[in-house]
Design goal:
The strands form two sheets. A five-stranded antiparallel sheet has the order 2-1-5-4-3, sandwiched between helices. It has a five-stranded mixed sheet with strand order 6-7-8-9-10, sandwiched between helices. It contains nine helices and ten strands. Helix 6 packs parallel to helix 7. It has two domains: 117 residues, 2-Layer Sandwich (Beta-Lactamase), CATH 3.30.450; 119 residues, Transcription Regulator spoIIAA, CATH 3.30.750.24. The longest helix has 20 residues.
Length: 257
Amino acid sequence: MKTLSYPTQLSLFEAMLDGSRVATSVTDPELQDNPLIYTNRTFEALTGYSREEVLGRNCRFLQGKDTDPMVIKEIKRAIEIRKSVTVTLKNYRKDGSPFWNRLNIEPVTVEDRLYFIGTQTDVSTEYLHRQVLAEKDEEINRLLLPILSISETMGAVTLVGEMTRERFEVLTSKLSEYVQKNRSRHIIIDISGVFWEQGYFSSRLLMIQGVLRLMGTKLYVTGISPKAAIEIAEMREPTKALLTFATVQSAIEFSQR
């Protein structure tokens, strides 16, 4: 088999990098300010900067006012000690638009000379999705009011807003932790200030009741509206019926019998 000449191999390698979906760059730390000495076409497409505009410059031109200085410090430290590093940071394109960049830097040595190879991946969609989920979790926790201790053996929580499946999961977890920590024998859930999708509310309350029963705790549901009363009355498992009351005070009095 005929061996390709070195120039041909180099051209093929560059074409392969330019055809890659991953932005790639190379810096030379032995030159002043560790400048870029190579970028592929994907780097140009990602950042908006042409190769001619960036070669010879340190890649800090991608940083901006909201780039986390602690992440920059982590990158600098890795370069100083010649170690690989992977971080996610906010960078900016030539037109000023931001994007979240998952940056990986690897030190390589070629003919006794050190270089750093960087790969950049736009993870803005993934990052923003995680941010939305985090905000959603925060909203769920904000709407879920604290569990109050009415007595040594009884706790109560008042729910407000829409009760989604996610909020029910948080509620179940918090009640379980509360009961375990406080050894409560009675838990009151007041639902007078909530609304929900039709069809699953009563089943979720039954699930919470089942969890608490296994922990030796009784559940009392108060603030029953006509809508809630109808849905609970239509449950197919009457043997597991919830203990319901019009007011919190009625539930407290019942628990003391």
